Amino acid sequence: MTTSSNFIIRAATETDVVVILVLIKDLAEYEHLSHEVEATEEDLRQSLFGDRPVAEALIGEHQGIAISFALFFYNFSTFLGKPGIYLEDLYVKPEYRSNGFGRRMLAHIARLAKERNCGRFEWSVLDWNEPAIRTYDRLNARPMKEWILYRLTGEALNKLAGEV
């Protein structure tokens, strides 16, 4: 069994863009969504490290090897009057799962949320991802079943944007 004693979590740097993109592609393959990955190294570089970064990333390293990443950004709760953190993606390479690395990544982000005076820490999970759902249930995170996620992309986004 791999232990978490040689596991560190650090803020991603611009030099990590290549690794982040590889891990994103690995995640997409796991989620059966490889066909949806359009991100490029330059997209990530601009979004994470450009003039106006819109997200942050963490790298999890075990014995100096990048085995996980998390990508998150701020949202805002009008009811709380505070920012929140939305976790877009968390991925741990399959051979390193069930060793507590994902939980440590989540705990790290929860600590960041508290340090940054955030009122919430939220994420979504695919309904078939039972291992992740079990992990989240053990954390006492609760599914927001009364909320339905909507998304506009591609032509639907272009059409609505063209109305103004």
Report on this structure.
- This protein is α+β, with helices and mostly antiparallel strands and 164 residues long.
- The chain has one domain: Aminopeptidase, CATH 3.40.630.30.
- It contains 5 helices and 5 strands, in the order βααβββαβαα.
- The protein has helices at residues 17-30, 41-49, 101-115, 130-138, 154-161; strands at residues 7-11, 56-62, 65-77, 82-92, 120-123.
- The chain has a 5-stranded mixed beta sheet with strand order 1-2-3-4-5, sandwiched between helices.
- A hairpin with a 4-residue loop joins β3 (65-77) and β4.
- α1 (17-30) crosses α2.
- The mean pLDDT is 95.
- What is the fourth-level CATH superfamily? Gcn5-related N-acetyltransferase (GNAT)
Radius of gyration, CA atoms, in whole angstroms: 17 Å
CATH topology: Aminopeptidase
**What is the CATH C level class, in words?**
Alpha Beta
Order of strands side by side in the largest beta sheet?
1-2-3-4-5
Residues in helix, %: 25-40%
Strand tally: 5
Average pLDDT over all residues: 95
CATH architecture: 3-Layer(aba) Sandwich
Largest sheet: 5 strands, mixed
Broad shape: globular
Tally of separate helices: 5
**Beta fraction of the residues?**
15-25%
Distance between the termini: 57 Å
**Number of discrete domains:** 1
Order of helices and strands: EHHEEEHEHH
